[in-house]
Write a structure and sequence with these properties.
Elements (H helix, E strand, L loop, with lengths): L5 H9 E4 L6 E4 L3 E5 H13 L9 E5 L10 H16 L2 E3 L6 H8 L6 E4 L13 E4 L2 H8 L4 E4 L2 E8 L8 H12 L7 E6 L8 H9 L1 H4 L3 E3 L4 H9 L18 E6 L6 E3 L7 E3 H4 L6 E5 L6 H11 L9 E5 L3 H10 L1 H7 L3 E2 L19 E4 L15 E4 L2 H10 L28 E2 L29 E8 L6 H4 L12 H4 L15 H10 L3 E5 L12 H8 L2 E6 L4 H9 L3 E5 L13 E4 L2 H6 L5 E5 L2 E6 L4 H9 L7
Parallel strand pairs: 3-4, 3-6, 4-5, 6-7, 9-10, 9-12, 10-11, 15-16, 15-18, 16-17, 18-19, 21-22, 22-23, 23-24
Antiparallel strand pairs: 1-2, 2-8, 5-20, 13-14, 21-25, 24-27, 25-26, 26-27
Helix pairs in contact: 2-3, 2-5, 6-7, 11-13, 11-14
């Protein structure tokens, strides 16, 4: 068992109940929360349903960064609701255009040693500043705002020793891509990652944040760097030096050890269509590229975009490529504008997008058919760009800029000019005018609720017997984007009956009933929907709609080889049982349309009578689940909102 780690130091100060042994359930106090508009609207509706007058955290921030495109009234309706409910409940509101939640939080609010719970899976970005920052579903974040602790399994801790220094043209993005090559996207549930070693001191906070950001793709709960002199320098430049505290490990031991020599890394790419499909740029060199986008919460810091600007200065992008830049925060965008870098980027032929998530979630900038797109983003799940059959590669800003100039995947060292010697900002531009602080009392605040704002649907208590029908059977790595597509549909996130129409849309076949139609037919016939999957079911976004909408359609259970942490918690919160196969070969016995019966389920769960036997086609299929006592209590009630 790990000892003397930074992660354990933070946990020791925040555990309120439970046994600090890997795999055992614990509950931790949450200091700060963040939400974003795609998941936050439902989170605040859930908070209202709890009749909470004022948030109980040290700090809660509501960001608008996902649904910036106002094509129809829905998104702006949500923004008005979020701004008014934030004022009423004591939450800081970050206006549209202020930037992506993770980057702005790192810049303006992150505090070493504190806990942060966010309704976005990339909340671990703030581990780069020495926080224990964890992504969760909106309901879990609402509970934290209500003063409830966050429940999780006590982690195994993976120690990553960094040695050496990054070479020219090699980026922090290449560090996390190497981690994905080593650990892959699956098999890391219940783990946290801690970085240490002399190589840490060579990385700035934004570089560290790039690494912790894509820790989400590893499937770990969070990733944490120590808080050291580099952290102190960053906070001082942000005018927040008083928030700094040193946080380091003392002769640590880890449950698993990895060592990466930064000096030996070379530029890498995650190839279509998984973040762990890693190849070197040397292997991919010469591949024709049609689109390049630089930005997202992973790679749009001042340093990242200053390097890109220096590479583009005095040059023009390839006529066969479109290049778009999305700065991660208004702070970065304005600093680039003031020092001339933005002019260099525009002069090269780039298009400037809003400081938001945009194309990362398929909100615009979808590539053409049969076209390679290079993005400095964190996910390349199939169709996430908004184009079916997309060819999406994840790369560093340096590799992206090189491709924009040449029209091909190119090792930037082969461009024929020296690596730009850019300087980090001596001081960051401080302007918090787009952060709206709440009044001291919110009782008289009118919460604006337009007609497109619905209510969280409430499930019924668990039935005595599940009389189920398999509505869909999926393969490995079914993501929450597969379950609940974002893109043009995300504007319906506050209207569950409407959004539920596109559950599993990517799997629908022309001329055949959709998943939503099949599930509704099963529900209306008095039966229960069952979803069957394989490995890493529910990977990706924290989008709790991937549980809410199937619940609305009558789904009562998911059966898979393995279910990812955040999605499993969301299923439980909305009364859907997350089962795993005892025998993986039983997956073949459950094609779509199979009828399944699980008798006396409440009694069996209450008694922890695992394995629980499901009967299908005359066969007995043993199922199990890693459920805490509180999980079972929630499931029996039919979901967390049914509990008082």
């Amino acid at each position: 068992m790990a000892k003397n780690t930074v992660i354990q130091k933070i946990l020791e100060k925040h555990i309120v109940s439970g046994n600090p042994v890997p795999g055992e359930p614990v509950a931790i106090r949450i200091d700060q929360t963040l939400t974003q508009d795609a998941t936050g609207t439902m989170a605040y509706l859930e908070l209202e349903a709890m009749n909470i007058d004022r948030v109980k955290t040290e700090l809660s921030v509501s960001y608008v960064d996902h649904n910036m495109m106002q094509n129809g009234p829905e998104n702006r309706n949500d923004h008005l609701y979020l701004q008014s409910v934030a004022a009423a409940k004591g939450v800081v509101f970050s206006r549209p255009g202020n930037g992506i939640c993770h980057q702005v939080h790192l810049e303006r609010f992150g505090v070493p040693g504190k806990t942060l719970l966010g309704s976005d899976s990339h909340t671990p970005t703030n581990g780069g500043i020495g926080m224990m920052a964890i992504g969760a579903g909106g309901l879990d974040v609402a509970l934290a705002m209500a003063g409830q602790p966050f429940r999780m399994a006590y982690p195994k801790i993976i120690g990553v020793k960094l040695t050496g220094r990054l070479s020219d043209w090699v980026s922090a993005k290449d560090v996390i891509l190497e981690m994905l090559r080593i650990l892959t996207t699956k098999g890391n549930v219940g783990c946290m990652v801690e970085y240490y070693g002399e190589g840490v001191a060579t990385l700035t906070v934004p570089q560290r944040a790039t690494i912790t950001n894509m820790g989400a793709e590893l499937g770990v709960t969070c990733s944490v760097f120590p808080s050291d002199e580099m952290t102190k320098e960053f906070l001082e430049k942000q005018g927040r030096g008083g928030s700094w505290t040193e946080l380091k490990a003392d002769n640590p031991e880890y449950d698993k050890d990895i060592e990466i020599d930064l000096s030996k890394l070379r530029p890498l790419a995650a190839c279509p269509s998984s973040p762990d499909n890693i190849k070197t740029i040397a292997e991919l060199a010469g591949t024709e590229v049609g689109q390049v986008i630089i930005g997202s919460c992973t790679n749009s810091s001042f340093r990242d975009l200053t390097i890109v600007g220096a590479m583009l200065k005095g040059r023009k992008i390839s006529p066969n490529v479109t290049l778009s830049i999305a700065p991660g925060s208004r702070q970065v965008l304005e600093m680039l504008a003031r020092n001339g870098t933005l002019a260099d980027i525009i002069s090269a032929g780039a298009r400037i997008l809003e400081s938001g998530c945009g194309p990362c979630i398929g909100q615009g900038q979808s590539p053409a058919n049969d076209t390679v797109t290079l993005r400095t983003f964190n996910r390349n799940f199939p169709g996430r760009t908004g184009t079916k059959g997309d060819q999406n590669y994840l790369v560093s800003p340096e590799v992206a800029a090189a491709a924009a100039l040449t029209g091909k995947i190119t090792d930037p060292a082969a461009l024929g000019f020296a690596y730009p010697q850019v300087k980090d900002a001596e001081k960051f531009l401080i302007d918090d005018s787009m952060l709206i602080r709440p009044p001291c009392c919110g009782k008289n605040i009118e919460i604006i609720r337009k007609k497109t704002i619905g209510s969280p649907p409430v499930n019924q208590a668990m039935p005595e017997t599940i009389k189920g029908t398999v509505v869909i059977r999926t393969g490995d790595k079914t993501s929450t984007d597969d379950i609940m597509p974002a893109g043009v549909h995300l504007k319906h996130r506050s209207n569950i009956p409407e959004y539920a129409k596109v559950v599993f849309e990517r799997f629908n076949e022309d001329g055949k009933p959709t998943f939503a139609q099949r599930a509704a037919a099963v529900r209306d016939a008095g039966r229960h929907g069952i979803i069957v999957g394989r490995d890493s079911y529910g990977q990706g976004s924290s989008r709790e709609h991937a549980a809410i909408c199937p619940m609305y359609l009558g789904v009562k259970a998911v059966i898979a080889y393995a279910i990812e942490r955040i999605h499993a918690a969301n299923l439980i919160n909305f009364g859907i049982v997350p089962f795993t196969f005892v025998n993986k070969e039983d997956y073949e016995l459950l094609p779509e349309g199979t009828e399944i019966v699980i008798e006396n389920l409440p009694e069996k769960l209450a008694k922890r009578a695992f394995p629980i036997i499901a009967k299908a086609n005359g066969r007995e299929i043993p199922l199990t689940s890693k459920l805490s006592d509180e999980d079972i209590r929630i499931l029996l009630a039919g979901g967390r909102l049914n509990l008082k």
